[in-house]
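User: My instructor asked us to take a sequence, write out its structure as tokens, and then describe one feature of it. I'm not sure where to start. Here is the sequence I was given:
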Amino acid sequence: FSVKTSFLLDGKQGYLSELEKKAKGKRIQQWIHDIFTPDLFDKTINGNELDFVFEGSDVEVEDVREAVNAFNREYGGRYKLYADYITHPLQTVQKIRLLCHLFAELQSGPFDTFRSPEMHQAFEKALSSEFEITVLATMSAGKSTVINAMVGKELLPSKNQACTATIARVINDDAM
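Assistant: Let's start with the prediction itself. The structure tokens for your sequence are:
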């Protein structure tokens, strides 16, 4: 939940001002594709190969891996990126605990919106294991048939004519 980027050169805090400027205060998804450019090699490292280690969350590692692969596909004939990845996965329970803590902090902040009943309801709904899927199509398009196939049993009536002309709510109950 924080934006922190550090660049180390040969294991030490290096002065990589251009890289730090691009990353400062931004999430990795906002700058990672802009950092791997021919300019990185020509102006910053003065070479045609870069071997680096990236350390971050699962999602960040995937974003960096994608950017490295895209760069190597485009510029691999002239420049080459080699990357090792260190992943720090957060378990779902830890993420939810951190999210609840952050929400509690926001409620004590200056914005009344975070204290509103609507915000509480939206937050509780976001944390709930239930979620809504809307199935919408014209009459006799096969909506009930698709839902029955997803559920794995003939739960909703399905005919070649109008048969479920009302809103239906299907709730999964593992005990059933």
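For the description part of your assignment, you could build on this observation: The longest strand covers residues 49-56. Try explaining in your own words what that tells you about the chain.
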